Amino acid sequence: MSKAATASKAPAEAKERPARRLTRYGIAPLVAATVLGLFILTALFGPLLVPYDSVATSVADRLLPPGSVVSDGSRALLGTDQDGRDVFAQVIAGSRVSLLVAVTVVAVAGVLGLVLGLLAGYYGGWLDTVISRVGDMQLAFPSILLAILLAGALGPSLVNVIIALAVTRWVIFARVVRGSALSVRNREFVDSARVMGASDLRIMARYIYPSCVQPLLVAATVQVGLTMVAEAALSFLGLGVPIDQASWGSTIANGRDYLASAWWIAAIPGIALTLVVICIGLLGDAGRDRGDRASQAVMR
Amino acid sequence: MIIYLARRLWQSVFLVFGAITIVFLALRVIPGDPASLILGSSATPDELAELRQSMGLDDPIFVQYIRHLGEVLRLDFGESWRLGGDAFAAVLERLPATLTLAGYALLLTLLIGFPLGVYAARHPGKLVDRAVSYFSLTGQALPSFWVGIMLVLIFSRMLGILPATADGTPIALVLPAFTLALPFLGWLARLVRNGTLEELGKDYVRTARSKGLSERVVFNVHVLRNTLTPVVTVLGLVLGNFIADAVIIEQVFAWPGIGSLMIESIVNRDSAVAEAAIVLIAVFYIGLNLIVDVLYFHLDPRITLETV
Prior knowledge:
The complex is a heterodimer of chains A (300) and B (308). Chain A is mostly helical and 300 residues long. Helices cover 76% and strands 1% of the residues of chain A. Chain A has a two-stranded antiparallel sheet with strand order 1-2. Chain A is elongated. The model of chain A is unreliable at 1-16 and 292-300 (pLDDT under 50). Chain B starts with a helix and ends in a 9-residue tail after the last helix. The mean pLDDT of chain B is 81. The chains are: A mainly alpha (300), B mainly alpha (308). At the A-B interface, helix 1, helix 4, helix 5, helix 8 and helix 9 of A face helix 1, helix 6, helix 7, helix 10 and helix 11 of B.
């Protein structure tokens, strides 16, 4: 009888699996990786091919729709903005800022989180209490609020945006690493290393760290996407990168005032951002499915 | 039970204290000299010194911090130089607008997310189920401020059926509330779906079926009731997130709530108002988390101190 009960549930699970497996391990991660590859190439080399100058305004070319020919004879593929600047060049310049901020923030916060998480998870005791409590305090605060607060206090600059976002993100990495460190620190291979006389530093680097890598990478992937959205949000509010640098967020903010006459200014950078973030999400998801242990650590 | 409550309460007090400290650090320590910010670049050194003296800025930072804690406990955040008058009063005045917005967003999340989740659970693997599971993953990563602008573009500018900004009519709530709700719709639906599927596999469902109850009664009376518990508690957390997310979304729709006030204050360096707004939002957030924990306890008698 109990077998029948489990069987009645099993088909439901079985039914959804093939479809999900197809989308997760089939073409979806491949498409996502391709899109992200293009995005990274664009961010690295795009500004060299299509330079963007925030000061070079052209009154004659204001608010031209996508595909228009501008006064210097070239074609504005994605239209122009309220000052006659090319939206295509702006989006490409924005991709560089977006990638730069996201990667730097995740690298800084990731290393900080890794070190603090390892210390907290391995040593435990008062060190763990202090690190965990500071983390709790910070997480009790909606992270976007903290970022807004810090970015506002520090003033608009690329470095300040990176600082503000890194400060809000380290906790996530520290938690993931602490969780993995806790789960292995009393395992036999760690004990045996200790018995062999390995130093704490060596144990952390050679025996604890490897088990933290995968959850850390999964968390990092997810955070790259979230950081890109956070940077765009800060720039949208006028608290992000300064106006002489194009950010997807500030271009969207400009476009908001011209929705009725020039929808493309706000729509196009947003589409780019959404596309990239969804692709990162898809990749992160595929990575998460690889290891159960990794996913548990991230969920925690 | 009492011990658990006391511990959670103490934790929350600690978190509020932490939030006040973080805000103090960010607003009073990082930006440098508040006196020169208030008086501007034309101030003479004498004027600056006098203002610093009267604001107590010459005291050691620790003394300032302790005094500041006392002021915050008395809800005295100082005067707003931009709006004139008490900063906290200015924030309280904007509170109803934000709460209305967050409340409607919660209602939308529930009205759309719950049925969607139940439907997905009853038809696993079908189109709706797959859409829900996909959207719950991507929904929260979407730049919702941009989604809001696109909704304005479609429904206000192109179709002209909904107002883009707050004009006092209830229908002006639709777009901002939906924008707030969107990232959490799929999330709630997935939660309901997984909870329902789990409940459907339990023994009491088999018992109910075997005593001849119709599938409708089994589902509506027995299963739904058990899926509601996690939903009720999660909604508290969602509400907290709505109040935080509203900071950005209010800016998109020019909604006259705490969030837009806070951004205006930060941009204009009106730190008294900014601080009052942030501390209030943080207290809400922490308070809702506390209520959720207590409710969770209260709603499900199977949960005991050992399982927490």
